[in-house]
Structure formats: structure tokens, C-alpha cells
Amino acid sequence: MTPAPGIRIAGRLDFGGGYAIDGIDLAVEAGRWTCLLGPSGVGKSTLLRLIAGLDAGGRLDGAITTTDGAPLAGRIAWMGQTDLLAPWLDVAGNIGLGARLRGERADPARVERLIGEVGLAGHREKRPAALSGGMRQRVALARTLMEDRPVALLDEPFSALDARTRAEMQELAFRVLAGRTVLMVTHDPAEAARLGHAIHVMTEAGLRPFPAPASPPIREPGARETLETQAALLAALRAPDGVAAEAAR
After folding, report:
1. 27: exposed, middle or buried (C-beta count within 10 Å: 0-12, 13-18, 19+)?
2. 68-81 burial, b for 16+ CB within 10 Å, e for fewer?
3. Who has the most CB within 10 Å: 71, 77, 228, 243?
4. How far is CA 210 from the centre of its chain?
5. For the chain, how far is it from start to end, CA to CA, in angstroms?
């Protein structure tokens, strides 16, 4: 894997129809987790898709730059809200799907290693219909790792999981994505408080940084500073201007 770059997104995010957010300035530090927290419908996923170079339903009047000056194209892996597994392929086939779509052959040794790394040993030949939701997300995570990209964009990948499985997947993802530049969109204050080296809150009022706990992630869910940050983030989301709770800290 090539060294992970930092990313900066700056400008005006225009969704059309009269809705836009001015003054976007988001710095995603190299090799760290940045959590972008906000309610549904404010444009978090749109911003993520713009960074990935995907059809986003909006446009950025500004620039997306990297700390090493190289383009992001070809350096991004994506993990979305749904696992998007091919129902006709088994676990191994889904992990190697990216190579298959490019007309390449997935490295079988690497596929096997990733199956073990995400805790799916013994399930190699199962198809998605035979897997639980958590297991399917493990396959999706392994497929993200299979691409071996220095930047990972995560769009609420654990939002549909039960609380215990979500916590397990947070811990697994944080471990296996170590060293990569990760930008994660979430609507869950607890998730942002637990995972973020840096946290940014996005509301209709704009995008602003929010103080992360002083201890390094991944943090214990019941730790005092995790719970305090979680509560303050929820208050910020509910504040009319999105910053009242932050100012009170």
C-alpha cells in the first residue's frame, strides 16, 4: 500500500434547488480517522461521493486537494451503508469482486488471509443469503481491504447493525484499517465519539470541527470522556445553529 495522504475539501457545496452550504473547509489528516457527523439529509454522503469522484447529486464550487499533491483517483476504497454483495458469489468471490470486475484474477492467498483477518474462517463458501448482517459487513470490509487503497471512505457502514455487532465491527474496522486515511460519515454521536481522531459536525448551518476526546481511539463506549463527548455532540446536532453546545464546552 502506498503512503496515505491527507485530504482537504474547501469551497461551497451546492445541492441545487436553492440549498447550499458555504464555507466548507474539511481537513482529513493522513493515517487517521475523521468522523463527519450530522443528521440525515444535510449532504454528508454527497460530500463523501464528491471526494470519491462518484455521481453525487450536488457539486463543489471549490477544490479537493491532497497533502502529497497526487490525484485521489485510484487511491480510494469505498464501504457503504449496504454491503452490496453479489448474491451468486460466495464469501471468497465477493472479497475478490473488484479484481474480477477489472478483468483481473484476485490473489487467492490474499483472499484467504483476509477471510481469516475479518473472522470468517469456515464461512468461505457461503453465499450472502446464508450470512448474518454482521457477517455480510465483514465480507464488505474484507472487500474494502482487498483493494489495498491508502484512503478509505466509509458511508455509515454499521448503521443497520444491532448495538453489539456494531461495536464489534467498529473495533474490527479500526484495527484492520490502521495506517489508512479514513473519512467516516455517521449520524451516531456515540460512533463519532468512539472512533474519531478528529470530529466534524455538519448541519444545515454549515460544517464545523468539534473537539474529540483527548484519549486516542478506539475508546471504550462507557468511558467518561466518550459519554461526555457523545452528549455534547447530540446537543450540537439539536442546537439551532449547530454550534451552541460546542461553545458551552
Report:
1. middle
2. eeeebeebbbbbbe
3. 77
4. 17
5. 39
The CA-atom distances, in angstroms, between 26 and each of 12, 78, 85, 199, 236 are 12, 19, 31, 10, 18
Q: What is the mean pLDDT of residues 82-98?
A: 92
From CA 96, how far away is CA 186, in angstroms rounded?
A: 27
| Beta strand 206-210 pairing with 33-37 | unpaired
Q: Is 98 helix (H, G, I), strand (E, B) or coil?
A: helix
Residue 4 buriedness (CB in 10 A; 0-12 / 13-18 / 19+): buried
CA–CA dist 215, 167 (Å, integer): 18
Residue 51: DSSP 8-state: H
Taking a C-beta distance cutoff of 8 angstroms, is the pair 170, 201 a contact? no
Task: Decide the pairing of beta strands 198-203 and 206-210.
Answer: antiparallel
- Taking CA atoms, 244 is separated from 2, 146, 197, 241, in Å, by 40, 42, 22, 7
User: Is residue 177 within a helix (H) or strand (E), and if so which, with residue range?
Assistant: none
Q: Alpha-carbon torsion 124, 127, 131, 133, what sign?
A: positive
Summarize pLDDT for 28-55 with one digit per residue, the tens: 999 999 999 999 888 899 899 999 988 8
**Span 139-180, pLDDT tens digits:** 999 999 898 899 999 999 888 888 888 898 899 899 989 999
Can you give the pLDDT at residue 87? 95
Is residue 21 classed as helix, strand or coil in its secondary structure?
Answer: strand
DSSP state of 217: S
Cell of 105: 484474477
